[in-house]
Amino acid sequence: MRAPLQQIETSGELPQSADAVVIGGGIVGVFAAYYLARRGMKVALVQK
Question: Is residue 9 in some structural domain?
Fold first, then answer.
């Protein structure tokens, strides 16, 4: 059984401000962004 894919549409623009910028959307980058967001920080996750 295959996992369903979910496509998320984005504008491609970076936010005007962020408390942290995480470069790379691999497992470590996503976890870091998630952890920081859970701590109340505004996070920008950048993936090429």
Answer: no
Nearest to 46 by CA among 27, 22, 30, 28: 22
pTM of the model: 0.70
Confidence of residue 4 (pLDDT cuts 50, 70, 90): confident
- Which structural domain, as residue segments, surrounds residue 30? 17-48
In 3D space, the residue among 46, 41, 40 whose CA is nearest the CA of residue 20 turns out to be: 41
What's the N-to-C CA distance of the chain in angstroms? 29
Q: Could you tell me if 24 and 47 are in contact, meaning their C-beta atoms sit under 8 angstroms apart?
A: yes
Q: Is residue 37 a contact partner of residue 43, using CB atoms and an 8 Å limit?
A: yes
Q: Is residue 39 part of a domain?
A: yes
- Tokens at 42, concatenated: 């505004």
